[in-house]
Amino acid sequence: MNDILLFEPVLKEKIWGGSKLADDFGYSTPSSRTGECWGISGHENGTNRVINGPYEGKTIRELWNGHRELFNNEPGDEFPLLVKIIDAQDDLSVQVHPDDTYAKKHEGYAFGKTECWYILDHEPDARLILGHNAETREELADMVDKGQWNDLFREVPVNKGDFYYVPSGTVHAIGSGIVILEIQQSSDITYRFYDYDRTDDAGNTRDLHIEDSIACSMVPHEDAKPAQHTWTEAGLSITRLIEENYFTVYHWTLNGTVSRDVNEYTLASVVDGEGEITIGTNTHQLRKGAHFIIPATAERYELRGSMTLMASHTTNP
Q1: CA 185/CA 280 separation, integer angstroms
Q2: 137 part of the active site
Q3: Does 197 score more than 90 pLDDT?
Q4: What's the pTM?
Q5: Using CA atoms, how far apart are residues 250 and 230, in angstroms rounded to an integer?
Q6: Could you tell me the residue ranges of all domains in the chain?
Q7: What architecture is domain 5-216?
Q8: Cβ contacts of residue 166 below 8 Å, gap of 6+?
Q9: Residue 43 in marked binding region
Q10: CATH dotted code for 229-313
């Protein structure tokens, strides 16, 4: 197949969601509390359908199982990555995700959840929780037991264009007024430390997972500081934001035209501007909010226009 795979987004309502996925990206959202767009996903809890070409109507999950040549014949039972756009109108719960070993042992799932965030937009004074102040696991458990949340969690101010690497075991929360693009392992396992004692429309609180949260947390916390590298190819400025065990992530800024060889299958999301992509005889218009995969079966593609994209692929061993 010498074409891209374009996808229909999967939209998910959340107690903390808002309206920016509709207002800023033009998605058809189910309500004004829509928190997540799953733009590229093969996960059983939400897999995208192709909207173009010979595989129109097929899901990523179906293509992974039946057409592995599109993905470099990469091994594994599950499509490995998941790309989201998150609109946090309210604070997300303070949470932690397990690593692969813990996920397999306690949840029976192939992947833990290491992720990364690129800040697309934010309200003034918006903040994240990233890490904690406990020096030992015993101190962490004691502070949680006493409800010393303000002393325990570390807050970080955000700016548009900030990038954060959030490996499994990192205590974290996306704060209110933040819109991010998240690239992560394809896992939906979340352990909640704290949810601000809030209730849903029926007056119910959400479950907490204190024992699992404490067991999975990195102690003491260490900030991840991935090395970044920038270069230019014709009209395309590329910044490699991170290269780690599960994914390599890039920020692309296009102003003009660039032609590139296909070396691996690549996940891409347009986060600003508009343009087009041509592979072989196929040309597609791209605008903010578009998500697509350049498959491994393509040989070369050309990008034209003025747009910003986030791109990623699995990291070769």
Answers
A1: 31
A2: no
A3: no
A4: 0.95
A5: 9
A6: 5-216, 229-313
A7: Sandwich (2.60)
A8: 114, 115, 116, 117, 130, 172, 224
A9: no
A10: 2.60.120.10
